[in-house]
Amino acid sequence: MTGFGTPLATGRAATQPNDRGSRTHALAAARAALEKQAEDVAVLDLRAVSTIADFFLVCTADNPRHLEALKDHIAAVLLRRGCRVEHTEGTTPPPARRGVFSPEKRWVLMDCGDLVIHLFDRPARDFYRIEDLWADAPRVPVEPLIASKPSAG
């Protein structure tokens, strides 16, 4: 029996001969997030620890508008690469202590099949701590964007 975060007897990598597609899509989504100034971008390789997905992308946005911009840009980049976002969900924050609800988004989840993308604002990311829940999953290095030099003249 296998639970969340427990290694499988045979990892998904062994059952999927072409893992390059999901890894390539995960890295393309990470790059797209960086292009829109996402913070703390992390790609988790879940293939050996879960059957939920091959990869998670986790990143942080500054505010609800930034979350929306990240979602739209990542979806457009993935679509150009032939990866469709199957389903997207956004959550609103839990009720405040005094029972007041806020309509602002805190967490957007994008399901792309073998890739699941989690976009958080800072308080939600600190609260849910996805990386800690999936601590057994190896991190995939994400290359930082190199700032282009302004043209002379």
> Count of helices?
5
Unreliable residue stretches: 1-18
Classify the secondary structure makeup into a structural class.
alpha+beta
Strand order in the largest sheet: 3-4-5-2-1-6
Shape field: globular
Spatial separation of the terminal alpha carbons: 65 Å
Compute the number of strand runs.
6
Assembly level: single chain
What level of helicity do the residues show? 25-40%
Reading the helices and strands in chain order gives HHEEHEEEHHE
Strand content: 15-25%
Mean pLDDT: 82
| Main sheet characteristics | 6 strands, mixed
Gyration radius over CA: 17 Å
Describe what you observe in this structure.
The chain is α+β, with helices and mostly antiparallel strands. Helix content is 31%, strand content 22%. A six-stranded mixed β-sheet has the order 3-4-5-2-1-6. The longest helix is centred in the middle third of the chain and has 17 residues, at 64-80. The protein is globular and about 35 Å long.
Q: Which helices and strands appear, and what pairs or packs with what?
A:
Elements: H1 12-15, H2 20-35, E1 39-45, E2 55-61, H3 64-80, E3 87-91, E4 107-111, E5 115-121, H4 122-128, H5 130-133, E6 139-140
Parallel strand pairs: 2-5
Antiparallel strand pairs: 1-2, 1-6, 3-4, 4-5
Helix pairs in contact: 2-3
